[in-house]
Write a structure and sequence with these properties.
Chain A: Belongs to the metallophosphoesterase superfamily. SLP family. Chain A is α/β, with parallel strands linked by helices. Chain A has helices at 10-31, 66-75, 105-121, 132-139, 147-169, 195-205, 210-214, 237-242, 244-255, 290-298, and strands at residues 49-50, 55-59, 91-94, 125-128, 222-225, 228-231, 305-308, 318-320, 325-327, 342-347, 351-356, 380-382. Chain A contains ten helices and twelve strands. The two termini of chain B are 28 Å apart.
Chain lengths: 391, 162
């Protein structure tokens, strides 16, 4: 049996080895990152409820700004200067909207994926969630895409297809699926120089697309962690009644391309959907529907607050409705308000506070606006500030 | 299809600096006995080989792997030598992040591909199964997408900011 010109069992493993080599090479070429091995088993059911960890950090909308994303992790002591996880057993929830408005969307997806794996090893955990911009992009709604955003996906597509060619040359590997299958070469009423970028973006992000499948299927749409429920826009009682686990599984199934076609389930579309709702995140406190919020919260046993992104809070992270609604989208991305990164921290023993890089809240209130104010631990402001008037 | 034409493809070169200290900072890792990631993929693969020689050096194993007939096309293409080096390095890598100790050969392979975009196309390597036309034969699906304003043609007045 073993008397070929190369009498080695090793040749049997080559297709598998080539495949992982090519994947690693493509990842590196796209992101500059070598991912550590994935410690989590694939295809496990998406978890919806989690015990309250010792330390929980919540991070708002990132919108294609890698630098600000890094800062957000840094001010909470979650990564070091070379982006390695230093958060130990901390649990992080990023409430969605990684995509759109900036040009480093894929780099952030890779950055988060790498940290997820490192955190897992250290006993920590990072949850990432679907925001309305994830849903829109999967659906082909590219209204908030930037030029750089098209370029980055184009680069991904080029390397991805090259990787497929390499795999095709290795006899013994199945012919990889063409990511562009069924995508038109041109689009009406669109500039011709955008066709390629748009095609790449559709290929990557449509249901069952390689990027959607690889990264976005791991996102929760709702998550209960201890006494907090996380969602990008907001939850109404009807959503909770429908079933949080059911929502997570259905959205994930849709992104996987299993069923549902192009468009997301109804509770992800429109103003009252879980990723679009603003009833609890209006900046003006008096516009928030505290009654609806309390009603919704009362239907999830043990939960006393809802933590949301989606609506930019010019005044920084804050709480309304007796801090039952905590709003953490500080518009940090350059493509949004270019806001100062702030994150929310909940410790099991000492409650809720805000970690900010805003120099105003630094130790010496009026001393200096230090140029280094963006690094290091910001002052921890006790209890979410109650903000009623917008600046 | 013009792949890999942009300079930005080589961006990763700049991120090469922080070569990781192998698994230095995972405090909870200590009791993880097996830690399979620290073996090279090659050693792992060889362990399943039917007639594997335990005493053979990793280097020799890697060389033997390179001689496998099924990768002849990859090895002989116009970026064949860069491929071989990168693949060899990857096989031998014992880093936590497989391949992270192979930045140089990876970058060399990238540059070669940037200079020879068709390095791994079938036609180049003499395989003529390329007869299938590159048109889009599968039916084009419904892809009515909503483009960003700046990509519309003709351009909209009231230009929105990006």
């Amino acid at each position: 049996m073993s008397s070929r010109e190369n009498p080695s069992g090793i040749c049997k493993s080559i297709p598998k080895l080539i495949s992982s080599f090519v994947d690693t090479f493509v990842d590196y070429s796209v992101s500059g990152i070598f991912l550590p091995q994935d410690p989590s088993s694939q295809n496990e059911i998406l978890q919806t409820r989690f015990e309250k960890p010792e330390r929980l950090v919540a991070i708002g909308d990132l919108h294609g700004d890698l630098e600000k994303s890094r800062e957000a992790f840094k001010i909470a002591g979650l990564i070091d200067s070379s982006d390695r996880w230093t958060g130990g057993s901390t649990m992080v929830v990023q409430v969605g909207d990684v995509l759109d408005r900036g040009g480093e969307e894929l780099k952030i997806l890779y950055f988060l994926e790498k940290l997820k794996r490192e955190a897992e090893r250290a006993g920590g955990k990072i949850l990432t969630m679907n925001g309305n911009h994830e849903i829109m992009n999967i659906e082909g709604d590219f209204r908030y895409v930037t030029k750089k955003g098209l370029e980055e996906f184009q680069i991904w597509a080029d390397w991805y297809c090259l990787g497929n060619k390499m795999k095709t040359l290795c006899s013994g590997l199945d012919k990889p699926k063409d990511p562009y299958e069924g995508i038109p070469m041109s689009f009406p009423r669109m500039r011709a120089d955008c066709f390629e970028g748009i095609r790449a973006r559709i290929a990557a992000l449509r249901p069952d697309g390689p990027i959607a499948k690889r990264f976005l299927t791991k996102n929760q749409t709702v998550a209960v962690v201890g006494d907090s429920v996380f969602v990008h826009g907001g939850l109404l009682a009807e959503h909770i009644e429908y079933g949080l686990e059911r929502i997570n599984e259905e959205v994930r199934g849709w992104i996987n391309g299993f069923k549902g076609g192009r468009y997301a389930p109804a509770y992800c579309r429109g103003g009252n959907s879980v990723v679009w709702l603003r009833k609890f995140s209006e900046e003006m406190a008096h516009k928030c529907d505290c009654a609806a919020l309390e009603h919704a919260l009362s239907t999830i046993p043990g939960v006393k607050r809802m933590i949301m992104g989606h609506t930019i809070q010019d005044a920084g992270i804050n709480g309304v409705c007796n801090d039952k609604a905590i709003r953490i989208d500080v518009g940090m991305s350059k493509g949004c308000a270019d806001g100062l990164p702030e994150v929310l921290e909940i410790r099991r023993d000492s409650g809720v506070r805000i970690v900010t890089s805003n120099p105003l809240y630094k130790e010496n209130l009026y001393s200096h606006v230090a140029p280094d104010s963006k690094t290091g631990l910001g002052l921890l402001v006790p209890v979410p500030k109650q903000v009623e008037v917008k600046a | 299809m013009g792949q890999a034409q942009s300079d930005e493809n080589s961006i990763p070169t700049t991120t090469t600096t922080n070569t990781p200290p192998p698994s230095a900072n995972s405090p909870r890792d200590s009791e993880d006995t097996s830690s399979p990631s620290m073996d090279s993929l090659l050693a792992e693969a060889a362990a399943y080989g039917e007639d594997d020689n335990e005493n053979e050096s990793l280097e020799a194993k890697a060389q033997r792997a390179l001689d496998c007939p099924c990768i002849a096309d990859l090895r002989n293409g116009s970026c064949g030598s860069q491929f071989s080096e990168a693949f060899l390095c990857f096989l031998k890598s014992t880093a936590e992040e497989k391949g992270s100790d192979c930045v140089n050969p990876f970058v060399a392979l990238q540059s070669c591909i940037n200079a020879n975009p068709d390095a791994f196309s079938k036609s180049v390597t003499g395989d003529e199964k390329e007869t299938e036309k590159k048109e889009e034969q599968p039916p084009v699906q419904d892809h009515r997408i909503i483009p960003p304003l700046w990509a519309k043609d003709p351009p909209r007045s009231g230009n929105s900011k990006l």
